[in-house]
Amino acid sequence: MAGGAAVAYFASRTPKDQHLRIVLGDKATSVTALNVEYLTGEGDSMREVHMTYEEGKAPRIVSLEPRLPDGEYRLKIDVDTREGRRQGERRVTLGGGTTSVEMP
Predict the structure, then answer these.
(1) Residues 80, 32 contacting (CB under 8 angstroms)
(2) Contact present, 29 and 58 (Cβ < 8 Å)
(3) 45 DSSP β-pair partners
(4) Cβ count within 10 A of residue 57
(5) Alpha carbons 13 and 30: distance in angstroms, whole number
(6) Which of 25, 86, 19, 78 is nearest to 49 (CA)?
(7) What is the pTM of this model?
(8) Is 75 helix (H, G, I), strand (E, B) or coil?
(9) pLDDT for the residue 103
(10) Closest Cα to residue 37, out of 80, 87, 97, 98?
(11) To bridge 95 with a disulfide, which of 18, 45, 56, 70 should be the other Cys (CB 3.0-4.6 Å)?
(12) What residues pair up with 75 in beta bridges, in sequence order?
């Protein structure tokens, strides 16, 4: 019994492909760059991704597949647009399935 619990615990802490969607929607036409940082509850940075786009070429939905353990994360999202930079944070739980968040 204890062996099964240990296997389940370590399986949840093993990095695996997660599925995250950043929804830019109609604002995508003004987006020139997107930066997403994945932080643990303790504030440790687990991963960061930066993407740039030609003006008018950003997708309405940005698909990301970070390799991270299941769990709670705080996303720091920076979006550069023609009008300037927007910054925001979102809390997400990654653990199978697809998680979608709106642009800040």
Answers:
(1) yes
(2) yes
(3) 39
(4) 11
(5) 38
(6) 78
(7) 0.84
(8) strand
(9) 81
(10) 87
(11) 70
(12) 38, 90
1: pLDDT confidence band, cut at 50, 70 and 90?
low
pLDDT in tens, 46-78: 999 999 999 999 999 999 999 999 999 999 999
- Whose tokens are 């615990």? That residue is 9
Residues 6 or more apart in contact with residue 78 via CB below 8 angstroms = 33, 34, 35, 85, 86, 87
Instruction: Tell me how far apart the alpha carbons of residues 21 and 101 are, in angstroms, rounded to a whole number.
Output: 6
Domains of the chain: 2-102 (2.60.40.2100)
| Token representation of residue 58 | 């950003």
Decide: 51 and 34 in contact? Cβ < 8 Å: yes
pLDDT of residue 6: 44
Q: What number of other Cβ atoms are within 10 A of residue 1's Cβ? A: 5
pLDDT at 42 over 80: yes
Tokens of 97: 């399935």
